[in-house]
């Protein structure tokens, strides 16, 4: 079995330990939502750590890479507000990150001709090449996190998480 796989769903994990601590600290409180949301948070944090490792040699951070990916997915240049909406970064962070990426020659800024106040962002050839090189490595890292799940389990998990995500979007 690969080191990333487990065949024992009942193996105690970090979230189980946290729930045990809460049951001692606040007896009677139903902490069962942590079984799902605590694990989602934990998986997210661990995934970010892994992606930072994958991207370490690229010269960009995960947040910078998120900006590059938002631009790579778009068929046309984006306003900074569009990048902010896609990445869930703050407007200030988007401005700071795009300035750094422009300095690295990965992003180009240009003013909209009909309204000079609007700045459009797009990838340079170097930025697109970086995304095309690094994104498959990031997907492979994600794939390793899903080791041990068959196609049906992955589809079921994705469908359930889609419902949780929809609830989160409705209640933000």
From TrEMBL:
GO terms for biological process: response to stress. Residues 30-166 form the HTH marR-type domain. It comes from the Bacteria. One of its GO terms (molecular function) is DNA-binding transcription factor activity. InterPro entries: HTH_MarR-typ (IPR000835), MarR/SlyA-like (IPR039422), WH-like_DNA-bd_sf (IPR036388), WH_DNA-bd_sf (IPR036390). This is MarR family winged helix-turn-helix transcriptional regulator. It comes from Sinomonas puerhi. Pfam families: MarR_2.
């Amino acid at each position: 079995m690969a080191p990333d796989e487990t065949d024992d769903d009942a193996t105690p994990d970090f979230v189980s330990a946290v729930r045990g601590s809460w049951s001692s600290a606040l007896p009677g409180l139903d902490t069962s939502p942590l079984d799902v949301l605590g694990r989602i948070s934990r998986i997210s944090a661990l995934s970010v750590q892994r992606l930072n490792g994958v991207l370490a040699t690229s010269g960009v951070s995960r947040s910078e890479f998120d900006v590059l990916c938002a631009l790579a997915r778009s068929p046309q240049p984006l306003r900074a507000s569009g990048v902010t909406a896609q990445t869930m970064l703050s407007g200030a962070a988007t401005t700071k990150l795009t300035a750094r990426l422009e300095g690295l020659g990965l992003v180009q800024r240009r003013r909209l001709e009909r309204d000079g106040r609007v700045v459009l962002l797009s990838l340079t050839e170097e930025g697109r090449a970086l995304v095309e090189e690094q994104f498959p490595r990031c997907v492979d890292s994600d794939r390793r996190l899903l080791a041990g799940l068959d196609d049906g389990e992955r589809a079921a998990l994705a469908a359930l998480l889609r419902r949780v995500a929809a609830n989160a979007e409705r209640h933000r």
